[in-house]
Amino acid sequence: MKTSVKIISLKKAAALRAALKRRGKKAVFTNGCFDLLHAGHIASLEKARSLGDFLFLGLNSDASVRKLKGPGRPINKAADRAVVLAALEAVGAVIIFGQDTPLELIKALKPDVLAKGADYHKGNIAGAEFAGRVALIPLLKGRSTTLLAKKMAKEGKK
Known about the structure:
Order of helices and strands: HEHEHHEHEEH
CATH topology: Rossmann fold
CATH architecture: 3-Layer(aba) Sandwich
Helix content: 25-40%
Strand order of the largest sheet: 3-2-1-4-5
CATH class: Alpha Beta
Shape: globular
Structural class: alpha/beta
Radius of gyration: 15 Å
Number of domains: 1
Number of helices: 6
Strand content: 15-25%
């Protein structure tokens, strides 16, 4: 399958979700910036996918990442991040969103499982009330885009 086919609009995602539901398939949703893909991302995406039959991934737009992470981010543009994520076997579809949270996506998709990193608290997850259940996924210690970006900046100054 061509990677670009997996990068879809919310309208297409909602139609796909309805089709999956009709076939009795369990949909999982997760989201993030995924600026520099690392082992922690892969582990969490594979775990999220294992919780159902299909993984929808909400990807923060460039403006959204800048607002959340600061002016030096994102390192990679949304279109490039989407292609890399769509190429992963665990990811069924990528939907880019520009809001601060993926609430609109979750509200529209009503996933069976909303998967988030264990650094979140169940009572503080946007859209949790529109999902069948929330699953907190353990993070790989010492793996983060922020740490990688800092390491790259330090290496660049040498």
